[in-house]
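Suppose you are handed a protein chain with no further information: no name, no annotation, nothing but its sequence. What can you learn? This example shows the usual starting point.
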Amino acid sequence: MDIVFTCPDCHQEMVVDAQGAGSEIECPSCELLLTIPEADAANVKIHPPAQTVAREEKQFTVPSHEGPAESLITKSRPPLETQKDGDKILRIKTIRHGDCREVGHDVFDERVTEILNQIGEAHIVSINTINYSYVDLASKQQLNDFGVVIIYKG
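A reasonable first move is to predict its three-dimensional structure. Written in structure tokens, the prediction is:
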């Protein structure tokens, strides 16, 4: 059994369990301190028993598609060594100098060499240098850096 009453200040309707009658609560809208009224015929709301509530049957449908379902996971391309020349398309790899610093050591040259060896000299179309600037979050300063863009067939 619930007690239904309204806030005298903001007219917010509230529903409280009948056991809370006589206790004080704060109005959720205007934060006025209210005393929950005693239960009487005008403000009592009785819940119907659970057995009398009609249960609503919901029919769910499974989506169906004509033809084979498309895969949500794409397979990665085979390594460069196993690809035929006809399968290869132009690809791009950008290596930033700022991403190649490890605990005070600059490993930019080693990283570029490693990637060039993976691609293979025969597959490289061009290697271009880039200059870029960014804002360092710690110092809030604009810093300049460099890197390389490798265009290759793969």
